[in-house]
Design goal:
25% strand, 25% helix, 3 domains, 19 helices, Immunoglobulin-like, ten-stranded mixed sheet, globular, single chain, Glycosyltransferase, alpha+beta, 40 strands, Beta-galactosidase, Chain A, domain 5, 904 residues
Amino acid sequence: MSGSMFETTRRRFFQLAAAAAVAPVPVSPSVAKAEAPQKKRKQAASPIDYPRHFSGEYLSRIAFPLGGIGTGGMELGGRGNLRSWQIFNRSADHETQPYIFPSIFVHAAGHPDFASFLESRLLPPFDIHDNGVRLFGLPGMPRMSEAEFQGSFPLAHISFHDPGCPVGVSLEAFSPFFPVDIDDAGLPAAVLEYTVKNPLSTAVEVAIAWTLSNPSSTSDRERINELRSSAHCKGTLMTEPSLPKDAARRGSFALCTLAEAGGQESHLPMWVDLGGASAIDLFWDQFSKTGTLPAPPAKGSKDASAIATASIRHSIPPGATKTFRFLLAWNYPVRTPGDMMWDPVKGHEKDVVGNHYNTRFTDAWAVAEYVSKKLPAMEKQTRDFVETLRSSTLPGPVKDAAASNLSTLTSNTLFRIADGSFHGFEGCGNPHGLGFGSCTHVWNYEMATPHLFPRISQSMRETSFGYPTDKNGHMDFRHRLPLGLEHWGWAAADGQMGQIVRLYLDWRISGDTTWMKRQWPAAKRVLTYAWRAGNWDADKDGVMEGAQHNTYDVEFVGPNALCEVWYLAALRSSAAMAEAAGDTGFAAEVTHLYERGRAWTDANLFNGEFYIQQIRTYPKEKVDPGTLSGAVDPSNPRFQLGGACHADQLAGQQVAKLAGLGDLLSDSNLRKTLASIERYNYKPDLSKWRGSLRTYALNDEAAIVNCDYSKGGKPQVPVNYYNENWTGVEYSVSQLMCMYGMEDRAVDHVADIRRRFDGKKRNPFDEPEYGHHYTRAMSSWGLVPALSGFRHDAVAHELTVMPRWKTAGTFRCIWSAYDGWGYFTKSGNSLEVVTLYGTLKLQNLVVDACGTETGSIQAQLGGKALQAKLRKVAAKDGSGQSILFDEVLTVTRGSALRVNFLPC
């Protein structure tokens, strides 16, 4: 699913499409040939370094997500402001609070006292509201003159500057986030850590305060702010107990200080509000002159307002630095299908599916206590993750794309309900999610969860192969919550086949064959569903010819590469899983089908440059209704690919390659296809491109467009979204280019994407498609294993390390597996694998071939010599050298694996 054309709803679009499908649909070569490939030109463009730096007008669109995986959160603006509060179990892009700001006071002998909001100045435009600049956020208050933002998700760094401020001030903001651990990377909390350096020859007094109105409602009579204190934190707990039990905002929020030794903590749980602007005036009169907080309202006063302030004050000696640390935590348990627009079953709109974090913590204060107690260890692991990616010798654009899109995991695109299972929208809308149901043919693309958080990926497979899959193997490509009440009713060919491939990938990464076997009966039904009468491969010849619903929100009628390649990958995956499950007869059967389908596709769909679609027709009554969305009449289909050079035609190959399945089609044809996508679909300048649908790139920006018809064969009504560009597809294509000898061009394309998200035109931490923080864009993490050549097969205890990105010196890269993560370095004939957290088990190591059939090696684990055999193998990723150790090795923190090849 990718949204609906021209802002219509998805259902309305299908109705319009079905009504339109009554006239014949000719293929018009004359129309198609009008779009000739554009002449390539060299663009002068600045490099994409990592981490990237933003300042001035390039801060305007920055919105850096804070929050845990599946918890919702808020966003840190490029100026240092908090915006887009999305903690209430649904996306709400523009929601903020009336009072929410940090402030600083500095007293230095010989200098005027300095007081300011600790944000940089607002950026234009200033004329979009009918009463000047909107009052929310207090835009007219003093602010720092400048800021510089540096983002390397999950860590944001902002340096503030003002000519009147005698000290240096910076902010680091983050939520605990690191691979593998889905619980401690899934905490509803954010840390705001300010650092102040005194450059003067005398001591200075500095106070930093955070102010926040109780977010539960706007009624001061009902909101309650109360002081709390524990061994590790102090603060204000904010609630609204009068709200109905099923209200989304019924819960709690905590504003806390985590002062280091010597810091003076102050808390004002309620402000005095006498009307008008008195609340902020009373606060600012006191704080700006003394750096202290005003007196609280009298108990029971009608002038009390549920605005809280937390303050930390330090005396900083000359040349010294002090840290001012604040913690935000939340707990809102009322997650319902109706409120988040998860296409609720009638009568179950208000069923509370909850949040997993609610089962761990009773309220926001419990969250704050847990985070403050474990923060040193969690902060170190978060910073280690950031630094390990930073220090990788991958190209800057790749690191930037891979890291920045991880922020989607902390947006409302993904959530974890009370039973521990994960579910996802396609993206975030306003004020709710877009594309409910963990849409299979969108989530198939993302590579963040299987490689960094494989237990999330497993959870989503368990759901897909559970209730959404019926006894016949029909898999709903969207599911409703609560599960088990009502089916969605539609199956998607690419989604269904892709889920089988993802199951195979999850199995190889986890090494849990018992887990795979539990899913296998359903997975087998899902595959054989394609062979049923009126379905995708009804004649069971290894080729999908039927009406194939797919991620372009229509059915492709007739053989096409997009669905066929996913099918071939599913057949290969099923053969391996069937063999492991003891179903050897079925394994042989699907292997035969794969070989037939592969041969037919290369012989009949490849036109010498790329793979095309053969459009066919079928009487509607002969097609399984569970495969038809209503967008296409299979007897006279519109919205077809036809002769397009389709950028997405090899998506299944990309995932198959990362899973270790090798080439699904002819290697020569795959390389020619990628060269054709480069030639035809890549547009270095879109200013003359006809972008008549949704626009994600424009003017002189460069992009890979979904379809190009330069070679003819364009239907009169071509496929949906044909002239759009989707970053998730651009990343998928780029990964394939990495795998087939086009690494330089791949990196150029990634750089083109990231230049579009420059902080001025677009938010660097949000790549949209059908909604913000779009799932498909998380395909970008696949660039890391694609270029590093790192793949851990936990089933076979086999580790492959064959970097595709060549460097003059030592190649270094982050790696992540099921139970651990770390980095490896490769220099010449030497390899070192280091585990930073957890463990990595292997017995067979596959590396680049070094030119000899046999040779000697030196290998050590934690300094202890190892015995191993060396042999040359035909690796799935190219010619390789296999090192078989005498036993399974466990690489742990402090016991690196070091291997040297002699001779080579």
